[in-house]
Design a protein that fits this description.
The structure holds 2 protein chains of 2 kinds.
Chain A (H helix, E strand, L loop, with lengths): L4 H56 L14 E7 L9 H14 L1 H4 L2 E3 L2 E3 L7 E7 L1 H9 L3 E6 L8 H16 L5 E11 L2 E10 L3 H8 L18 E3 L2 H76 L1
Parallel strand pairs in A: 1-4, 1-6, 4-5
Antiparallel strand pairs in A: 2-3, 6-7
Helix pairs in contact in A: 1-7, 5-7
Chain B lengths: L1 E6 L4 E14 L2 E5 L6 E5 L2 E7 L4 E6 L2 E6 L3 E6 L2 E3 L5 H16 L5 H27 L1
Parallel strand pairs in B: 1-8
Antiparallel strand pairs in B: 1-2, 2-3, 2-5, 4-7, 5-6, 6-9, 7-8
Helix pairs in contact in B: 1-2
């Protein structure tokens, strides 16, 4: 007998235990994913309304606001969103890969788009700083030698707006103070439970293209948003104050949306990783059981032949 | 009848038909009735009162946001936080307010921090008020 039956039996038992754990993690992630996608859809309607409001205001008066200011990019802020925990397949690695790939293509990374206008900037003497969300993002940026100005690790599995607010405030205020010339987010876009892709989006200065891409062609978005007529509209206390509030709301919801999408992607990536781990465990149990049965059979055969050999010797 | 939607980034808090809506804005509380002119205004922390179709009043505590009255009697309230009165635990709101005021008493280094703390206090005051009102109504 090549392998002892007991060793194999122990091995099967431990693989079974692992399978129980991965199965449980799969179910938990599935439930969390459902909740995260549901809240992503809910928050889209908020973003849709804020967007529509801004377009309506723009039909009234030209919007000239610090958050729309386009400057050649000398200082760039990158917000990198990943998860706090691993065991989520390629989720964290993909975010890191996207970031590395973007850093290689600096001219494109430094392009600042507003409307149809793009401003190119020189690649030399550019400073890039990072805000990271999640422990994994923090460590991967650190490994690449990036300068981290803030790291948010206490955003929960099902993010609430209140948890994302400090991040949002920091982004908006530092851009308004002209500490940065462009702010972009690296996050994971939730396409379907089977497919998530790492993406980069410009957040500030406010870019229509990126906003639309982030928020998606949703039913809550105004269909033909380019043609808002100028109608009578009462603005209290002042147009300026209202535009500031509306733009801030819009940026807030865009950033919050990326946080939610990342959370949904994380959970579905983990769900898929755990599902394939469970499947692998099932296969392993099957083949181990086969080996175990063969070993058992072999030992029985051996015993019988020993007995009959012993009997033959006596005769 | 007004079509009211009260929306926070987390969810649609309340939608439905209403007779009137009272909203706290930067320039004071305003009440919106049928056929109000289109209006956009900035919210401040306070209580939103919605008088529903059936005359029942719904109370909500909101913090900063935007109020939009559109043509065709549509009212949209976008608020950073919006909680229905029955969800607010008066005791917890009170402790949160106390905490905010404590932070105020401590050192405040910058103007923006001051504004943030003031905002927090205002928000918590509004929550406490709404929670107490809700209790009395019951």
């Amino acid at each position: 007998m090549a392998v002892s039956g007991r060793v194999i039996r122990n091995r099967i038992k431990s693989v079974k235990n692992t399978k129980k754990i991965t199965k449980a993690m799969e179910l938990v992630s599935a439930a969390k994913m459902r909740r995260a996608t549901a809240s992503a859809v809910q928050s889209r309607s908020y973003a849709g309304y804020a967007w529509e409001l801004l377009l309506r205001l723009r039909a009234q008066a030209p919007v000239d606001h610090p958050l729309f200011a386009q400057r050649p990019v000398k200082k760039l802020l990158l917000v990198v969103i990943s998860s706090n925990r691993g065991l989520a397949g390629g989720f964290n690695a993909n975010v890191g890969k996207k970031l590395a790939q973007q850093l290689k293509n600096l001219p494109q990374l430094l392009r600042s788009r507003v409307g149809d206008k793009t401003v190119e900037s020189s690649v030399t003497d550019v400073e890039i700083e990072y805000i990271t969300v999640g422990k994994r993002a923090e460590s991967s940026v650190r490994k690449q030698g990036g300068k981290i100005v803030a790291s948010f690790i206490d955003i929960s599995d099902t993010p609430k707006f209140a948890e994302a607010q400090p991040l949002v405030n920091m982004v908006v205020q530092s851009f308004a103070k002209q500490e940065y010339d462009k702010v972009a987010i690296v996050y994971t876009h939730f396409v379907s439970p089977l497919l998530q892709t790492a993406k980069i989006r410009q957040v500030l200065p406010v870019s229509e293209v990126d906003l639309e891409k982030t928020l998606g062609a949703d039913a809550s978005m105004p269909a033909d948003h380019k043609n808002f007529e100028e109608k009578f509209l009462l603005l209290e206390p002042s147009a300026e104050k209202i535009i500031t509030t509306a733009v801030t709301r819009l940026i807030e919801s865009q950033v919050f949306e990326t946080v939610l999408e990342s959370a949904a992607s994380e959970h579905s990536a983990r769900m898929m990783a755990m599902r394939s781990a469970s499947d692998a465990a099932t296969d392993m149990i099957d083949s181990l059981t086969l080996v175990f049965n063969q070993a058992r059979q072999a030992s029985i055969t051996k015993e019988i032949s020993e007995i009959s050999a012993g009997k033959a010797a006596l005769e | 009848m007004l079509q009211v939607s009260l929306i926070s980034p987390d969810k649609k808090v309340w939608t439905g038909a209403a007779q009137s809506v009272t909203v706290p804005t930067e320039t004071g509380y305003i009440q919106i009735l049928n056929n109000h002119v289109p209006l956009v205004s900035v919210l401040r922390a306070g209580e939103v009162t919605v008088k529903g179709e059936d005359g029942e009043t719904h109370l909500f505590a909101v913090s900063q946001g935007v109020l939009e009255v559109r043509e065709g009697n549509q009212v949209v309230v976008l608020a950073n936080t919006a909680e229905p009165a029955y969800e607010i635990d008066a005791q917890r709101a009170e402790t949160a307010r106390a905490r905010a005021q404590e932070a105020m008493a401590g050192k405040i280094s910058s103007e923006t921090e001051f504004a943030a703390v003031m905002g927090a206090i205002e928000k918590e005051m509004a929550r406490v008020k709404v929670a107490i009102k809700h209790k009395q109504h019951r």
